[in-house]
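Students often ask what a holo structure prediction actually looks like on paper. The answer is less mysterious than it sounds. You provide the chain, you provide the ligand, and the output is a string of discrete structure tokens encoding the 3D arrangement of the protein together with magnesium ion.
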Amino acid sequence: MMKYVYAFEDGKGDMKSLLGGKGANLAEMNRIGLPVPPGFTITTEVCNKYYTDGETLTSEVLDQVFEHLVELEKKTGKVLGGLENPLLVSVRSGAAISMPGMMDTVLNLGMNDETVKKISELTDNQRFALDSYRRFIQMFGDVVLEIEKYHFDSVFEGVKSEKGVKNDVDLDADDLLNVIEQYKAVVQRQKGFLFPQDPRKQLEMSIKAVFSSWNNPRATIYRNANEIPHDLGTAVTVQSMVFGNMGEDSGTGVAFTRNPSTGENVLFGEFLMNAQGEDVVAGIRTPLPVSQLKEKSPVVFEAFSTAVNNLEKHYRDIQDIEFTIEKGQLYFLQTRTGKRTANAAVNIAVDMVAEGLITKEEALMRIDPKDIDKLLHPTFDEKGLSAAKLLSKGLPASPGAASGHVYFYSEDVVAAKAKGIKTILVRTETSPEDIEGMITAEGILTARGGMTSHAAVVARGMGKCCVAGCSEIHVEEQQRFFRVGTQTFKEGDLISLDGNTGSVYEGIIPTTEVELTGKFGELMQWADEVRVLSVRTNADTPKDSAKAVEFGAEGIGLCRTEHMFFDENRIAIVRRMIVSQDTEDRVEALNDLLPFQRDDFIGIFKAMGSRPVTIRLLDPPLHEFLPHEKEDVASLAESMNMREDRLQEIVNTLSEFNPMLGHRGCRLAITYPEIYAMQCRAIFQAIVHVVKEDKVDIHPEIMIPLVGHDKELSILSDMVKSIGTQILGDAGIDTPYKVGTMIEVPRAALIADEIAENAEFFSFGTNDLTQMTLGFSRDDAGKFIGEYKQKGIFLRDPFESIDQRGVGKLMKMAVDLGRKTKPGLKIGICGEHGGEPASIEFCHNLGFDYVSCSPFRVPIARLAAAQAAIKNK
Ligand code: ADP
Ligand code: MG
Ligand code: MG
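The corresponding structure tokens follow.
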């Protein structure tokens, strides 16, 4: 026969999926000798059975329930509905994964017109008995009979106002009798039957109601939002009641074994004397801090703190506890792992290692890498935030907190900054032209675009606070204002952005900074000890490189040379180079660019020292650098001594239908070899400079993007090497360097064995690889990806977390083929996925050498790489 019901003595803490979290932990607390009121749990399997049986409890199930009830009656010496010593129970819900407040609980079950009299006699406290009865009718009416709460509330408020009192406790026994009679009348009026007096009937109805609450709309929505499967089911726990509302020597409370917001190792919580169940949370009276229990009742406090200590030692993690004191006797009613802030999580994990409670590896596994993100960026201070006026909400595109004056153009942001003004760049959407403004502003706000829009990706790369796709705001860049609702914000007005929540506020809010030292630093060091993957960074400037090293980066996995092209001093030269009509003109412009590039590389090599630095040669379509506004075309034409209409014509011919699949990456260098030749000369001259002048032992790696054919790579790597041989040879040095390629065109993955012939390393560009494998344009996928997730086609956005079954298969193939040609071929990843924990674990399992991500994600990647190593030992 199936076992449907478990007494607390039959269960254990590890039976959560069968008994629910609450049921399993009650059994566990009982097992280790803590005072827990006895009871039993009906399994989650019965919940599913209840639904397949057409929302009924079969006699098999009910028989087992009542057998356990009889056992419970023996244990307590009380009888449900009995007239000598009536038993009262609670009927509690509890799923395997905690869903706070989503399902229902009934307290004081077993009360009826007869038992209430006996209980008032036995306790010598009529008021208490009547108060418990009226609470029961109210809860039962709400949860089981589904009568709208206000029917009961209006009765209760009516009785109070008739008597002219405000508080529950001011009602005496006669008033409560009156309330009870009126409550019963509400039931009869609303349901057409009398309030059920038979306690066994009450129990059966309540169990069914708890199972039904598994599918109530708020529980369903909660499961959807938290990706909890709908077929887990809830368990139902039936437990004998203890009473915190028996007078001033009774009470109830909730406590955390440590402070859940700071992690400090002190008991934290609140309690109320003479109160029951939810009263503490419901805010009926102001609860007292749990430390004051010591004064109220030293003996109870002593017992409590010892028990709580043991409980935490037993579970080896911070506990969130419900307790009740009945006439000086302490009972535990619930314990679960306490939810905590990111900051507390780190502090608690490190403290617990020091206390010998957990191992370093366990500490590492306890931190959610996503939480690290919150620790690294400034946040608004709580007081300021609660006083701030919320204007609107967009997507939390890049974490952090920023306040500043609104500006709409990159140039204006830069000019304001020169005057020492803090700015927020606000635009309908951003484009590569806005890069300087994005670098300079404190934060970025856009009205359009998703989590992988230009603004979002670039901001995350820079670790800059960004709220994207804030569709309620309407931006008029040219007139320099934006509107939200009825409010208008002009250039110079103040706003604040919260990149963690996507909130936009009016005015300035003070922020609090974070530090990388102390316990956080210690934890990161443990991560470094266990991880196998190296962690590099994507950085384009000496400043970013230095920041990344501070965060623990072991090299640069991607230095994008084109970002250097947008600089104010250079863009004109770049544009001149692009519109050149013959090689000679182009070479001349390129020669003007060379010193700038060389200086950038010198800066980056110095910042990185002996750490490897991967430089990617020019990648984006040339069109991205061209002037788009008419006035820019005019001024460029003037500087080039060219007619404006002629220049406009050239600009037009450079435009492409599908630039991402157009003339870019290595294709540029196949047609204009002089572009890569200039970049290579800049790199090798920089190498010579750094090695000779600064005597640094550097490890440069030159990377060719967008290769799909082995010939593309062989032609270009030959060119790189011949320039290298010449420049290094002339200087008389033999600094070793590597030439490799990105694997981002699916064809390259398919013929990776041939590509590997000419490659000394592979770096997966998973943004393009995803885009081209799925045929989803990264810039347009935002429109439909949400629907794809909702319909379960993709569990996660493939641009956020690698599509392991599709794109991942290509990656595995490329790794295997590449290393077949060259065993030990160095392999890394430099797409956005390189900072995403699930993708990092995937790379670990494929045997990568390193992952590379934006500086602010480096600590996340270090932790995720450590977790991958621990999980896949
Ligand atoms: P929730 O999941 O909403 O917290 P619970 O099942 O934990 O629901 O119960 C709600 C409240 O009732 C809690 O404060 C709990 O401590 C209290 N409670 C539950 N069962 C009993 C009982 N047998 N005796 C006394 N109080 C109880
Ligand atoms: Mg609870
Ligand atoms: Mg790419």
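The radius of gyration is 34 Å.
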